[in-house]
Specification:
mainly beta, six-stranded antiparallel beta sheet, 17 strands
Length: about 300
């Protein structure tokens, strides 16, 4: 579904700690928010001691797109596209106080491989733990990714689409029908079971990428992404040794899969695969009108962040 790139590799990641975790599925509704539209100045991320539950790397979308920002976040020099549809916007109601990353999805847009899409939309980039001095985290048995996402009310979900997750191994071999020594655990929203906003983990591993080679739907409908103009958190813990994947939505456990990502124990964590677009890779997946989504408050840890 995603393949290397049509645009420059200016792209981004933010990583900040958050809290709260329970054990039963639910749809929580954090505080309402209103997006603003002004970019802000650059700052560097902060680092904390790596350990179970402690934040190993955190930061904000302040200074998004600058060389200093890219270096601080370890943005990889390959596999990025869609930077023109990313922009930093002020949002003081974001969980980390803003700014947030606004992503625009054009009408009828899909992945960068789309040959019949009337408009571009979404984008992606990779972070590299090794390049920011977190090799121990990359080689560790578990990694936890948490971030906040906001979808405006009245969102057109289209057929389905991707949201950021973790990846491991060689960039370009973790998704998109091209497999090797790589894996990924992005999220998807997908229309199914009478609802347009079902959540799932969209899994690729060297040994488990579905009958078509384009990914496995794990936990379809175990939770629902909310288009209510409010910030919601998603958190995933991946255990390379066991292949277990656990997901929390707004601090409540909504998905737990045992051994579903088996076979990745020898493939180190790469970092965050910030990947979001409608699709699929043809215009039938896309929205009828231009849409936006907002991202903030990313954080990585060796253990669950609550």
């Amino acid at each position: 579904m995603n393949r290397p790139a049509r645009s420059s590799a200016l792209a981004a990641l933010a990583l900040l700690t958050a809290a709260g975790c329970a054990t039963t599925p639910a749809r929580a509704h954090p505080r309402p928010t209103t997006a603003a539209v002004a970019p802000t100045a650059a700052t560097a991320p902060t680092a904390a001691t790596t350990g179970s539950g402690s934040v190993a790397w955190s930061g904000r979308f302040t200074g998004y797109g600058t060389p200093q920002w890219q270096h601080a976040w370890g943005v990889a020099g390959q596999g990025a596209w869609g930077a023109g549809d990313f922009s930093a916007v002020d949002d003081p109601t974001a969980p980390d106080g803003g700014p947030a990353l606004q992503v625009t999805y054009g009408a009828g847009s899909s992945a960068n491989t789309c040959t019949d899409c009337p408009n571009p939309g979404g984008g992606q980039f990779y972070t590299d733990l090794n390049s920011i001095g977190l090799s121990a985290l990359a080689q560790g048995p578990t990694l936890d990714l948490k971030y906040a996402v906001r979808f405006p009310t009245g969102r057109d979900w289209g057929k389905a689409g991707k949201l950021p997750g973790l990846y491991g191994g060689k960039i370009g071999q973790e998704s998109g029908g091209t497999h090797g020594a790589g894996w990924s655990t992005r999220y998807m929203w997908r229309a199914a079971k009478g609802s347009p906003d079902n959540g799932e983990v969209y899994l690729y591993t060297p040994s488990n990428s579905g009958p078509t080679g384009y990914g496995v739907d794990e936990g379809l409908g175990d939770w629902h992404f909310q288009a209510d103009g409010r910030w919601h958190t998603v958190e995933q813990l991946v255990n390379r040794g066991t292949g277990d994947i656990t997901v929390w939505y707004d601090g409540r456990q909504v998905h737990a899969a045992t051994g579903t990502a088996s076979g990745i124990g020898s493939i180190p964590f790469g970092g965050v695969l910030f990947s979001t677009f409608y699709g699929g890779h043809d215009t039938s997946w896309g929205p009828a009108s231009t849409q936006q989504a907002y991202f903030a408050d990313f954080s990585l840890s060796a253990g669950v962040q609550h």
